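## tool: complex_structure
## caller: assistant
## args:
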Amino acid sequence: MTPSATPSSPRPRFADAAREALADPASRGELRGSVAAVRARRAAAVAELPDWGELRAAGSAVRERTLLNLDALLEDLERAVIEAGGIVHWAADAAEARRIVRGLVGAGEVVRADAPVLREIGLTATPLPDRLPAARAGVCGIDFMVAETGTMVLLEETGAGRACLALPGPLVAVAGIEQVVPTWRDLEVFLHLLPRSAGGPGGAGRFSPAVSTWTGSAPGDGPGEFHLVLLDNGRTGTLADEVGRAALRCIGCAACVHVCPVYERVGGAPYGPVRAGPIGAILTPQLRGVGSAANASLPFASTLCGACAEVCPVGIDIPEILVHLRGRVVESRRHRPVPTPELAMMRTVAWTLSDRRRYETALRRGTRWARLLARGGRVRRLPGVLGLLGRWTDARDLPVPPPRPFRAWWADRPGGGAR
Amino acid sequence: MRVALFVACFNDALFPGTGRAVTRLLERLGHQVVFPAGQSCCGQVHWTSGYQREAADLARGFAAVFGGDDAPVVVTPSASCAATVRRDYPRIARAAGDAGLARDAEGLRVHELSEFLVDVLGVTDVGARFPHRVTYHPTCHALRALEVGDRPRRLLRAVRDLELVELPEAGECCGFGGAFAMKNADVSVAMVADKVRHVRATAADVVCAVDNSCLAHIGGALTRLRAGVRTMHLAEILAETETV
Ligand code: SF4
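## result:
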């Protein structure tokens, strides 16, 4: 069996995919149970450390420093890997990465451990147990790469990636260029941050049960033949964005995923193949652009509740980046020959709100209209022609404005008319 | 103290009772309330929906009304508007490349009501009486953007004859999220359904918060289900001096 790309079919927009996911109550229940368990383990593992805040700050600082210095660190890494007998490949995009991997592992039996970066390039996992005896080559992801020594670090629950190390043929590791850590000393902080944030069942959420490190293909340490595929796939472009770049600090713990109230209800599928949950919503549109309706819908797949930023061990302000990317989506549509209805509406509303007389006229008119639609003190169903408001009243009533706005009451107070 | 009220456009139109309650409350505590009539909207919805230019226009308008050399102390009964001004205005200014707006934003002195009462005035007992069973929903902006913590609860605990009951899973979002409630209506409804379930489990008469937008969402689901639980802004409870 040879690795092959998952055929990419056009994905639906988030809201449509989510509707489908919500319609399956059985899997919803299961998902909520497992998410709650991870969340609880994470909370307990984090609460144990009184200096968690300092660890987070240290981790954020290392990641930020790494991103600012990425060029030089990657050169160091490449040199160290080659010195230790490994071979380094650079892949500009997913297709090139797949081509490189396919060329390296050949046509024999291949084990592929599951990793986000492998899903990103369209390589899915091969189940381990029944494949392993016949397998020759292995493909795995990497958690961290230590630049000073060229060492690969893999933190796992089950050791599927570690099994690849024992195979007779070549081992091919794929990693995003941002996954580098300058020194072993810097690595230390992530060995605490990652497992505790991940809240896995092993090691009571304190430590990863299977930690593997190897350096090139040095005798006694590492596989017989080692290849490292360093993947760009949109990362360089992301790095150039002052606000959005923070997404590349991610260490892949999925803490943000497991606290997300949206993910908890719809699961990973609506986010597409790159990454699920809040990190997927900020990473996918940056790596793949906002050209497709599906990717453009991702920054809007959040209430901006902030639960993700609160737990992220490397301090990524996910809501800030979501709002930033919403701006990018809106900008990309601003110059269409015919403005989108939403743009026209938002412009009109801003124009109305930015002038006192227009605002007060609109208040009076809006109040009159809304009160016409009200039944028994609330607005129960709005006709579909009202578009988005109609989506609100599918399951919720709308409040009805009282006959007089606040400012009318104020103006009637003694001396209320004056500023 | 002389206090400028930013009522928020949403409250101006839909929840004028909240603005009246803030006025009554602050005057009862001996302060002078002014209402700058040029105010409208802080620009929150435009900003969070990606309409950065329009948000910058509205932010400039806000700064013109509430800023300047003698910028007044501003109080608002909307946690999300306070968060927009304090946390997002510098970002809006940066996105617009408007250094003047960034400077003006720095000079603004905007407080959410519970912050103002507890931190600026140093009071928790505002002399209110409200003989009902109440549960408090910490809205996401209050909890995670402003970090008002237990200030609203402390204020509620000091209200005479009020029975405060803890809301299960209180910190979870109600699913409103501005345009999210419409653009992702199905997920939003699934979220508010759980919030409403938790509210009903408390057997409270009233669910209280420091933001009417979230309360309108929760309330919209409660009245649709004819759940018989009222929604009330914190200000309205603190303004009550019911003696019956
Ligand atoms: S963005 Fe999410 S997955 Fe990445 S480090 Fe932060 S919490 Fe973990």
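## assistant note: The beta strands of chain B are 2-5, 32-34, 73-76, 109-112, 133-136, 163-165, 206-209, 230-233. Residues 175 and 189 of chain B are 7 Å apart (CA to CA). Handing back to user.
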